[in-house]
Amino acid sequence: GDTGLIYSFPFGDMLVKGAGPTKGGTLEKILSRKHLICGISKRTGFGEYNPASQTWNGLDADFCRALAAGIFVDYSDSNVVFKELNETSDRFNMLADDEVDVMAGGSHTHMLSTDILEPTRGEVFIFSTPYFYESVSRQANETEDTISMNAEDSPNFKAFSLVTREDDPQWSDFVNWVVESTFYAEENGIRQAFYINMPLRVLLFGPEFEHMMQSAIKAVGNYGEMYARSVEKVFPRNNTRNMQNTVAPFGPQISPLI
Fold it and tell me: Is the Cβ–Cβ distance between 241 and 250 less than 8 Å?
């Protein structure tokens, strides 16, 4: 069923020193322009636009903010620019053509892979660890930001993720670590007010991003807090959708969901 119950993978050694931003890569471009460009679609609980305040809210929007906060040391709302991907636009073309740095809420039905071929364009895109699973009918038409397998192999649910281009593995990895950090924070009872309890140093992407996880949680809170602000009104997280539940068939979910 529709669920926001997800567990993170173990982090491992985050003090392994990685290289800084790849020359000409997405991280370097974002730092240079001083803002992240996040593609987002209107969807209740996930991408909701308020014309009065000209702001985006919802789970997808919060993941964009978490990502921007992980990049910029002194994060503010000006560090993320939302670009609407409407029903008539070709979302994957916009991502492939570098019009957006990341697409929020991209969905797919490939449960055993994160690098997925988009058939109409013939290019591969990288999907982060899913942050929401939604049940679908095998006969239901997918939205245009959903990549499906052959009908006979397609499961009865789809997974929602942040999507990046295949040509920048450093950026795809960075995005996935930020997504995972929100799950880790909830599992370990680290709320927004106590972001300082997140891992102090993460050197995987160079020293300038060593506080990326603390910054992400400081900006938006843990996954449970993000969920409560937005998706709770659409898909309530009752006793079958909390981190402590272990009763089948609603036990802990991991990616891939199998």
Answer: yes
Residue 67 main-chain phi, psi, to 5 deg: -65, -45
Which of 53, 55, 28 lies closest to 40 in space, CA to CA? 55
Angle at 8 between CA 48 and CA 114, to 5 degrees: 75
Pull the structure tokens for residue 106. Answer: 């991209």
For residue range 168-190, list pLDDT tens digits in order.
999 999 999 999 999 999 988 99
pTM for this prediction = 0.82
- DSSP E strand stretches across the chain: 36-40, 48-50, 55-57, 80-84, 102-108, 115-118, 123-127, 132-135, 146-147, 157-165
Token digits of residue 171: 């950026």
Backbone angle region of 105, left / alpha / beta, with phi > 0 → left and psi within -120 to 50 → alpha: left
Place of tokens 């038409």: 141
The string of pLDDT tens digits covering residues 224-248 is 999 999 998 888 876 544 444 444 4
Encoded tokens for 22 = 């790849």
